Amino acid sequence: MYTKDYFEQNGYAVINALITPQQLTEIEQQLEQVNLTTAGSRELLTQPWCQLLANNLKNNTLLSALLPEKPIAIQCTLFKKSADKNWLVPLHQDLSIAVRHRFSDSRFTGWSHKQNILFVQPPVQYTQQLVAVRLHIDDCLHEHGPLKVVAGTHQHGRIAESELRQLRDQQGEQECILSKGGAVIMRPLIVHSSSKAIQTNGRRVLHFLYAPATLAETIPFQFCI
Question: ∠ CA 114-107-163 to the nearest 5 degrees?
């Protein structure tokens, strides 16, 4: 089991068998009902089964040391790499969160809409409190275009795009290889990327984002589960 100290130092952890085979089967059955016109969806937290899953993950003992205090789920994004929707993701940090409405605070920048949901980039002191749980519904080996992370870079705050490659070259990167039912736990500010899949297996990932409940008093999150 990963410790809080390990997670805070490296910014990520890989946990195999986070959920049971039965839970995995139930999720797959629900995902079969999701009509995808693109390579993913940002609206799954509107569905009761996904809300239940978000709560189950909060109570999973393997995650208890890594999630924020009194965590609430504020996003869930489905990613699916397939033969006709295969992509690479360049080095980046996750900077945006979903909110219900615009508000006046100059510290919040980069307003945008994605899939009819409003997103904004909060100040770094807020982003540093978030934790993502990337639950894998399919195996994710080297040939499937796995997540690659540059350990420890979440401690640098917001990094200029021009500096990301140099950091990766200096520190190296780690591939997050795992079997279906496992998860990558990560700080959104860790520098990360992924390559195109060499072999497409329909790799599906449910990317949950958790915040401490205290942040909901400051930010009008789109979802609070």
Answer: 75
* 79, 184 contact by CB (below 8 A): no
Q: Could you tell me the two tokens for 217? A: 């008093």
Cβ–Cβ under 8 Å, residues 197 and 145 = yes
Distance CA 193, CA 203 (A): 15
Torsion angle, alpha carbons of 219, 78, 20, 68, to 10: -20
Nearest residue to 38 (alpha-carbon basis) of 75, 76, 77, 85: 85
pLDDT digits (tens, 9 = 90+) for 139-156: 999 988 899 999 999 999
User: 106 CB contacts (<8 Å, ≥6 apart)?
Assistant: none
Looking at the chain, the number of H-run helices and the number of E-run strands are 5, 13
DSSP type of residue 178: B
| Tokens 């033969």 found at | 83
pLDDT single digits (tens) 16-55: 999 999 999 999 999 988 877 666 789 899 999 999 999 9
pTM over 0.90: yes
String of DSSP letters for 134-161: EEESS-B-GGG--EEEETTGGGG-S--H
